[in-house]
Design goal:
This protein is an alpha/beta fold and 221 residues long. It is built from eleven helices and five strands, in the order βαααααββααααββαα. The chain has a three-stranded parallel β-sheet, covered by helices on one side. The protein has a two-stranded parallel sheet with strand order 2-5. Bound molecules: fe (iii) ion.
Length: 221
């Protein structure tokens, strides 16, 4: 393992998309082409409305999938024993809530602290914690994010509207097919006594990738 500037970690031999269980990436462009062809055909026949498809995809990207991860975060905020388990063995702790991934997918939870912010990327393809976050957003798969998250994480965060104090360290975690990361954001202040369900509402998909922070409670009203 070696640390790059600004705390970038690259402690694995990243072979994503080459020789292992990673078919969603290997066949992605082929699949994308097939989906596009099907969508075009169905649209021409008047059977589907592309806007409706976009709305469904958007729902799975931003709502359905990431609600699993938000439950994990809310439980970690509420239950110190669960948080400790999550720190020690995220795969098992997350599976205990019923969120399990494909065979061979291991999870690691990285906790934001007052000193350190965590950001997740897959530099070579688009490895993503499907079991807790659902579908990856388009930008996560884009070459610009994948390269710049490592080179200039602070600048990328600022583009997402997340401006961190200069003294806060940023660690960038490079996902692989074997190991995927879930960012546990810092619990916002003035959330004492909130239920896990209410806390989960403060946790966005982007907060669990690390491009955003948890929402302040007053901002959700
Ligand atoms: Fe990958």
């Amino acid at each position: 393992m070696h640390d790059h500037e600004d705390g970038h970690h690259h402690d694995h031999d990243h072979q994503c998309g080459h020789d292992h269980d990673h078919s969603h990436d290997n066949h992605y462009s082929d699949m994308q082409a097939r989906v596009k062809a099907l969508e075009t055909l169905l649209t021409e026949k008047g059977l589907i409305d592309p806007a409706a498809i976009d709305a469904i995809v958007e729902t799975y990207e931003t709502k359905v999938g990431p609600r699993n991860g938000a439950q994990v975060v809310a439980k970690a905020w509420s239950d110190p024993e669960f948080a400790e388990w999550l720190r020690r063995d995220a795969t098992a702790a997350i599976a205990s809530l019923g969120f399990t991934g494909r065979q061979g997918e291991h999870m690691r939870a990285v906790f934001n602290t007052p000193e350190t912010h965590n950001l997740v990327v897959c530099t070579l393809c688009s490895c993503y914690p499907w079991s807790v976050l659902g579908l990856p957003p388009v930008w996560y798969k884009a070459p610009a994010y994948r390269s710049r998250a490592v080179i200039d994480p602070r600048g990328v965060l600022a583009e997402f509207g997340t401006v961190l104090p200069a003294e806060k360290k940023i660690r960038v975690w490079d996902s692989t097919a074997e190991l995927r990361y879930l960012v546990i954001p810092e619990r916002p202040t003035r959330t004492d006594g909130m239920s896990e369900a209410a806390l989960a509402d403060l946790v966005s998909r982007d907060a669990m990738i690390g491009t955003a922070l948890a929402t302040k409670p007053e901002a959700t009203v």
